[in-house]
Amino acid sequence: MRHHRVATYFLLTIQLLASSMHAQQISSDREERKKIQEWQQKLKEFKIGEKANKLELIKSFPNERDESNGEYFWNAERMSKGQNGEIIVADKKACRVMAYDKSGMLKRIIGRRGQGPGEFQNPFSLSRNDKYIVVGDTKNMMLNFFDSSGVFLRTIKMFKAYYDIAINQEGLIYAAPLRSTKEAPLIDVLDENGRLINSFGQALQGNSENWLLPNFIIVDLNENGDLFIAYQHHPVVCRFSRSGQLESTIRIKHDVMREHEEYNLARSKKSGIIQVIYALRSTRNRFFVLHNYPRTEILEYDFQGELQNDYYYEGAHDSYYTDFIVMKEGEENVFYLLQKSPRNEISIFRPKR
Predict the structure, then answer these.
(1) At 335, is the secondary structure helix, strand, or coil?
(2) What residue numbers bound the domain in which 35 lies?
(3) What do you get for the CA distance between the two ends of the chain, in Å?
(4) Same domain? 40 vs 56
(5) 9: pLDDT confidence band, cut at 50, 70 and 90?
(6) More reliable by pLDDT, 26 or 64
(7) How many independent structural domains does the chain possess?
């Protein structure tokens, strides 16, 4: 009789668990359908403009065959363009940097997990010039220097956490620190040995209760040595001279970005604000910003803030990209986008002919 009661209890438990899992699946499916419907509505509501150029997907990598050989992204969010058109990717969770050629073939793996020289615990940011590849590790509080072929050179111990960096040809590092006070500058300028040379940049938002999150920025340098910063939660890009003088502040005119900024400002005392600009790239006379919803868009502007091209791709409702680089093929821009969801991979796009 006792065994019968145990068996009955076991069967009832299994049935209850199965029922609960089924209910959770139904709830999850409903939530997914709701998200898809909202996304489709946003696509209809926010139409593409006159400068729109549709992108077509050429290929993605690493693929499933690469993954079976141990080549995969675990949590890659940042990338940079290396010499000869190489694509360099920092993977935070795999704790390594991977270099690919333009076709998507893996050339080398740089670094590994650890706390020693040339090792990573959270390779959060990276940049390069003709001499160095520099990788910022926010957990080890280090900057790791490698030569252009990926050979380890040296490690610099830092006393601030920097969540984005850009190195110029002279070896100066423009770094966005995790600011400790509302009045702290946006940018620190470091030499090759990590010594602080200069700081500049005034925050856009100074709310006394939540001044840090709305002022997260990303940085990039162009061939002229101009420094560009983009606010991640506001449609604003600033251009500075190499000495730190503010040259221009450009407010991007984009309906979805404006809507997201208004939401962020209304919630500036709370958590849960929406990212507006995901990545930034600059060239000799242009800058590009990445936006993800409801379309993936790379918006190209001149230095006066006039929109030149709106490159867009309509993927899935849950697809978004965290970084990109621009390659020139003749007069055409080719884009390498680092996708975070639904797969962590690099996708190559070109304007549809």
Answers:
(1) strand
(2) 1-45
(3) 76
(4) no
(5) low
(6) 64
(7) 2
Show the 3-state SS of 69-135.
CCCCCCCEEEEEECHHHCEEEEECCCCEEEEECCCCCEEEEECEECCCCCEECCEEEEEECCCEEEE
Q: Are residues 86 and 163 in the same domain?
A: yes
Kindly report, residue by residue over 275-317, the tens digit of the pLDDT.
999 999 999 999 999 999 999 999 999 999 999 999 999 988 8
Regarding whether 268 and 135 lie in a shared domain, the answer is: yes
Give the integer Cα–Cα distance in Å for 82 and 84. 7
Same domain for 29 and 138: no
pLDDT at 196: 95
The whole-number pLDDT of residue 213 equals 76
Are residues 153 and 74 part of one domain? yes
User: Residue 77 — φ and ψ, nearest 5°?
Assistant: -130, -15
Token code pair at residue 158? 């830092």
d(CA 115, CA 141): 10
Map residue 195 onto helix, strand or coil: coil
140 and 24 inside one domain: no
More confidently predicted of 297 and 2: 297
Size of the chain, expressed as the number of residues it contains: 353
Q: SS in 3 state form for 226-288?
A: CEEEEECCCCEEEEECCCCCEEEEEECCCHHHHHHHHHHHHCCCCCCCCCCCCEEEECCCCEE
244/227 Cα distance (integer angstroms): 8
Residue 236 CA from chain centroid, whole number: 16
pLDDT in tens, 49-78: 889 999 999 999 998 888 878 889 999 999
> Which residues, at least 6 apart from 255, have a Cβ–Cβ distance to it below 8 Å?
46
Q: Are residues 27 and 135 in the same domain?
A: no
